[in-house]
């Protein structure tokens, strides 16, 4: 799944606001980067069709909410890239995470270590 720059910005906005209609999203981006109401409507519709937003009608307008959390989308995008480029027996993914972790601070490294340990425990329990 590919995301355009505006799609990423709209998702980030909705993760912060939790819910918004087209006019609210447009009002925010009109100040920040310009563009038209139609462009924002199209972007929200694309994100909805990609399964990244949910929507429900309130009056005459749809209210949009993120359907996935930020970390879930990051995981989906990483999985998509790795499925396209990395074979199962290849160590490129491990090397890539090692390279990425060069930019991690102590707290992020500790969190990664805790997630790895939790995954190991889950695997052990599955083997019993």
Strands side by side in the biggest sheet: 1-3-2
Main sheet characteristics: 3 strands, antiparallel
Helix content: 55-70%
Determine the CATH topology of the largest domain: Arc Repressor Mutant, subunit A
Measured by DSSP, the beta-strand proportion falls in 5-15%
User: Which second-level CATH architecture of the largest domain applies?
Assistant: Orthogonal Bundle
As for the number of domains, it is 2
Low-confidence segments, ≥5 residues, pLDDT <50?
none
- The tally of strands reads 3
CATH class of the largest domain: Mainly Alpha
Rg (C-alpha, Å): 19 Å
**If helices are DSSP runs of H or I spanning 4 or more residues, what is the number of helices?**
6
GO biological process, one term: negative regulation of DNA-templated transcription
Keywords: DNA-binding, Transcription, Transcription regulation
Family: Belongs to the BlaI transcriptional regulatory family.
Protein name: BlaI/MecI/CopY family transcriptional regulator
